[in-house]
Amino acid sequence: MIMDKGVVWITGASSGIGFALTKQYLEAGWQVIASARTQGELVALSESYENLTFVAFDISDDSQVQAVRETLMLHTAHLDCAILNAGTCEYLDMTDTDPDWKMMDRIMSVNFFGLVNSVDVCLPLLKKSSHPHLVGVSSQAVQAAFPQAEAYGASKAAVRYFLSSLRMDLKQFNIDVTCLLPGFVDTPLTQKNTFSMPFLMSSDDAAKRMFKALASRPFEFAFPKRLSAMLWAGRHFPKLWLSMLAPKKDRND
Ligand SMILES: NC(=O)c1ccc[n+]([C@@H]2O[C@H](COP(=O)([O-])OP(=O)(O)OC[C@H]3O[C@@H](n4cnc5c(N)ncnc54)[C@H](OP(=O)(O)O)[C@@H]3O)[C@@H](O)[C@H]2O)c1
């Protein structure tokens, strides 16, 4: 059964991919409950769409879980889909004499534990749908190692494993679970990157591909395929990948 309309909860909806997904679902006639810490770009959108509701949620704060769930319940009796997209990125600098190891906590608390908190919020509402779908956003970064991505890559690998295990345990409730692995998307998160981002796409393009792919509820959807192929090569030829990507030591050091 393909669900063409329903109620969707999207986290990280105030900018970038989440905002573009929110527009996609609104245009397709879904009721969208959008969450983030701030409304950001959603402010302008809420003037044009009656089927959009904003519910503030800091996903890293587990003390908000119950209150957010109760607020969602004021707006809907069930969720057909939850797209857990909120996330952040920071890069570890090993040339620093005192590397910022606390970054591991910061990134894991949003990207991994924040996603877990979001599942905690929405699971009872998904169970009330006739055909529920839980979606989490990982990253193509998990397909091969990138320099400085110790925190980000580990958090997204944890998300991927968490979702694949959860898929097993939610099957008995008929909840489908999809893990999305986007490549480089032009958003505020990547606009601070100083390295080249092959096959960079716009957030609207990424959201269109995600929306289309989610209709068939795949276990995973990694895109664009050209980047997947490049990362496949990186995974299978790790020495070559290392020699290409590892930062070179300054000869004057
Ligand atoms: N852009 C890419 O190339 C790319 C590639 C692969 C995967 N991804 C993943 O895609 C997702 C969206 O990223 P993006 O590129 O669209 O980034 P973005 O434009 O920076 O958006 C991030 C969203 O997450 C929200 N957020 C951040 N921290 C939060 C928190 N503690 N609680 C609640 N919401 C929080 C932000 O809203 P507030 O600040 O208002 O809370 C914002 O809506 C992330 O999970 C990212 O890792 C991105």
UniProtKB/TrEMBL annotation:
GO cellular-component term (any): membrane
Superkingdom of origin organism: Bacteria
Keywords: Oxidoreductase
Gene Ontology terms for molecular function: oxidoreductase activity
Pfam annotation, one family: adh_short
InterPro entries: NAD(P)-bd_dom_sf, Sc_DH/Rdtase_CS, SDR_fam
Family annotation (Gene3D superfamilies): NAD(P)-binding Rossmann-like Domain
Family of the protein in this entry: Belongs to the short-chain dehydrogenases/reductases (SDR) family.
Name listed for the protein in its UniProt record: SDR family NAD(P)-dependent oxidoreductase
Source organism: Marinomonas arctica
